[in-house]
Amino acid sequence: xxxxxxxxxxxxxxxxxxxxxxxxxxxxxxxxxxxxxxxxxxxxxxxxxxxxxxxxxxxxxxxxxxxxxxxxxxxxxxxxxxxxxxxxxxxxxxxxxxxxxxxxxxxxxxxxxxxxxxxxxxxxxxxxxxxxxxxxxxxxxxxxxxxxxx
Amino acid sequence: xxxxxxxxxxxxxxxxxxxxxxxxxxxxxxxxxxxxxxxxxxxxxxxxxxxxxxxxxxxxxxxxxxxxxxxxxxxxxxxxxxxxxxxxxxxxxxxxxxxxxxxxxxxxxxxxxxxxxxxxxxxxxxxxxxxxxxxxxxxxxxxxxxxxxxxxxxxxxxxxxxxxxxxxxxxxxxxxxxxxxxxxxxxxxxxxxxxxxxxxxxxxxxxxxxxxxxxxxxxxxxxxxxxxxxxxxxxxxxxxxxxxxxxxxxxxxxxxxxxxxxxxxxxxxxxxxxxxxxxxxxxxxxxxxxxxxxxxxxxxxxxxxxxxxxxxxxxxxxxxxxxxxxxxxxxxxxxxxxxxxxxxxxxxxxxxxxxxxxxxxxxxxxxxxxxxxxxxxxxxxxxxxxxxxxxxxxxxxx
Amino acid sequence: xxxxxxxxxxxxxxxxxxxxxxxxxxxxxxxxxxxxxxxxxxxxxxxxxxxxxxxxxxxxxxxxxxxxxxxxxxxxxxxxxxxxxxxxxxxxxxxxxxxxxxxxxxxxxxxxxxxxxxxxxxxxxxxxxxxxxxxxxxxxxxxxxxxxxxxxxxxxxxxxxxxxxxxxxxxxxxxxxxxxxxxxxxxxxxxxxxxxxxxxxxxxxxxxxxxxxxxxxxxxxxxxxxxxxxxxxxxxxxxxxxxxxxxxxxxxxxxxxxx
Lengths: 150, 398, 259
Hints:
The complex is a heterotrimer of chains A (150), B (398) and C (259).
Chain A: H1 3-26, H2 40-46, H3 55-61, H4 63-71, H5 79-82, H6 104-111, E1 140-141, E2 144-148
Antiparallel strand pairs in A: 1-2
Chain B: H1 2-13, E1 16-18, H2 30-53, H3 61-85, H4 94-97, H5 107-138, H6 141-150, H7 159-192, H8 205-232, H9 238-269, H10 274-282, H11 286-310, H12 315-341, H13 343-346, E2 352-354, H14 367-387
Antiparallel strand pairs in B: 1-2
Helix pairs in contact in B: 2-3, 2-7, 2-8, 2-12, 2-14, 3-5, 3-8, 3-14, 5-6, 5-7, 7-8, 8-9, 8-12, 9-11, 9-12, 11-12
Chain C: H1 2-37, E1 54-59, H2 68-76, E2 88-96, E3 101-104, E4 122-131, H3 139-143, E5 149-151, E6 157-159, H4 169-173, E7 180-181, E8 188-189, H5 195-198, H6 205-209, E9 215-219, H7 226-233, E10 236-237, E11 249-252
Parallel strand pairs in C: 1-11
Antiparallel strand pairs in C: 1-9, 2-3, 2-4, 5-6, 7-8, 10-11
């Protein structure tokens, strides 16, 4: 055959072969196992650190507070709803206790009056009319809100 | 760290209406505007060359070689804005290794490789091979080395081999036309297939991209031809230039029709996204779309060249007009890409609000970078024209 | 004669090579079409009925817009605190008496949504939590050029942090605005249903902290789960159903103003 075509054809075949070889080499091992992705990524995604431990973990040490909370309306609210774990490798309560200030701003995130939330379970208050300038926890026990300290 | 967020805080203060919180930042900026622009120039320049080779428009002979080399120069630069935009450019080989068959973007690597090597380089090689052999005998230094190497050892200069070169070159050009369509059509499909974005999602998107690519490529070759002739101090072949302008006119009509059809259809159907798009076009895009893309880039060129089809003024006037019109078209098509890419991200997927585009001058997404990517191919073209001047060719395909 | 044989060979060669090249091109043109046609028959990765199929229901009638879900999500998943990156957020819709709809989500609702329209102008108002819908026909998975985002066998749309090239195509492809480019890891990021938690039998952080049970998480294949019972009892909708993403986040009480 004409030299040109033979050499071009040869280079084409060579190129494709080298390409396929490199492809075999560079494609990650677990790729394609479950679909068009690296299957080990599923394990990577599972291996992340959890910061929220769940109420049971809190209750295992703070049983008395948990029982108190259980006896009143905030039983519906989980511990970590208000006491967000601080991020720092692990959320050891002794090392980084998630302390919360019971200010109007804080409690208002659920309880401030907003016509968008009137139907719901959380009692709504207009904090301009209800003890403006004070902190909620001066009168309310956060874990038993209807137990007023007055 | 704070200054990396500063432009986002600024954008946040300039939000109009409601945007999904994650829609504050534009992810595709100037670099992604450039990529379709550059590949469009490549596809368009190639189509102009193929007009001569395949469709026998003999009057375009003076621009054939120039068009091919222009296409090559721009194609070599095409990937660079794309790769520089990635967060992890060193992982970009993954597109070759594990391309996702459902993703339009995954075709990129393969179509680029195919077009560069199997189409453009081969066609240029077949066209120049005989000249390389002859030139290698009469030149010295770098050029001599280059010519000797590039012939790949096939040194026949007889009639038979010339005929074979011709036949193969023709075959490659025929193959190259759908390849050029694919090279730029898939970019249009990348946008047109995103159902999440109503500004992008239209069946016409690949076709519009293709025709605007042809328009920009033809205008580019027209302008470069005039500049090269001026630099070389040779007379411009007016029949060739008039014909290029004529083809520019025809394809611009088709492009304008398609784009108008798209807009008109939107206005008529006025479906869910129309309310926000109406505000987008008349507001944030009013200058870049209505003024730059439509008025400057389409209406004025159409009017001027259209006028020349009926009444042909003197050569000097035509030359100046063509040059200005060519520049206008190039600017207009750039803004067409801008309006698609940036425009589509200015409004939120909530269809209820707008964010803003931050113009930067420095950095990877800045104007200076864009200028570099546009000037570099011109530099490469100058080098190629020095290395393989089309006007010094001793043989020509028939 | 010698020359005849050479000519014949050359002709045969041209014929065979043309046929080969033509065949290759034809095949390479048809092959992609095959992929498109196989969309219906292709086995899905979530077809294994032994595994759970995770989903979520959002009860708009219960959401008070406290934003604790958005806050907890950021803490649990190391999402930057700046107000530009959210795996989940809450929106407040205020429909005014004149028909105008005001939508807000300042800092994604973290710190609680505040009423911004005077009482007398309000026709109705409600809160809508948003998150990744983990679509069974996710347009983001379809768009990823390298296979860095995918649907896990148990139905969660995840991102492969070590494989993503950061092209942002998936972010543009998501109709719900659920994805963002993480400025620290420099890869695409989104809600993962707290995959690391649900694989250990826990619930996602947003579900954990919601004080009014507005988010119900569960296994769509478990007929006894709270989620399935909720879906059975309430008429639910998905967001942007016309886009046919087969979203697995269902909203109860979705009003037509919701975008």
